[in-house]
Structure prediction request, 328 residues.
Amino acid sequence: MRIHLESVHRSYRVRRPPQTGSRLTRLVRRVSSEVEALRGIDLRVDSGERVGYIGLNGAGKSTTMKLIAGILTPTAGRVTVDGRDPHRDRRRLSAGLGYLAAQRSSLWWDLPVKDSYQLIRRVYDIEPAVFRRRSDRLIAHLDIGRYLDTPVRELSLGNRTRAELVGTLLHAPRLLLLDEPTIGLDVFAREAICDILRNIPQDVFQDTPPTIVMASHDLRDVEAICDRIVMIDGGRLVYDGKLDELRAHGGGRRKLVVHHTAGHRLPVPPGLTQTGDQTRTLTTYAFAQGELPSELLGALFVDPEINDVRIEAPSLEGLIKDFYPRNR
Prediction:
């Protein structure tokens, strides 16, 4: 599915206590104001793309997701999914849409998991043989077979999210909207979810892979699943490009991390800058890619006071932290 947002604005009317007046006035009175969540978003996502949608809290990520899903309508501008208005054609487009939002259940709360899956089969009119093959594959991949007879409300957060993801994928959606899918999960649940999203089984999606738009605060998940990054700040897009292009914004900076015996002092060679994150047993240098003197490495490797030497490329999280202040 293709997504197109053209000059999209979305505002909310909110009511808040007044800033002045007596305590009773602030308690009972409300002042109405308008909050602009999105301010002229232009975005195109082609079929089969995997896009990481990142931003700070309140940046407008969830609002964008709801506009694409047809839950909300734009205040101004135009949103289309496969050339259709997702709100007006919501019934038609929903057959190809999978929407998984953090800690919001799309399964029936009091029913066993397997009964929810049967209801999904009937809602989307999935052929029994296809449903059986698809559900068996997904259940095995996410390791939730032992919980099929358990009511959804009794599952832990991690197991519930796994069960929700199976339910989201059962009808083989052509568009997957994932709003913080791994928030609050332990490492095993997070890895299982990332693995299936990174390598969606071919017997589930027999033709082209789905388009994925994933909003997440966990940049490890974005890096593992997505090829393209879209960054939003204050309702405006501030970056849209490939992961490799984002890394290029770091200017090729690298870190040389040296672990040594306590109190051992190291020189600061030309071209290297000693950073502030030092301890008695660790010294860190910053340098530009290609400017690390080979003689320095040779000296470090033969120094008996050196325990370990490591070169680190900038993390995605570090690049984004550096990127935001430049675009505010």
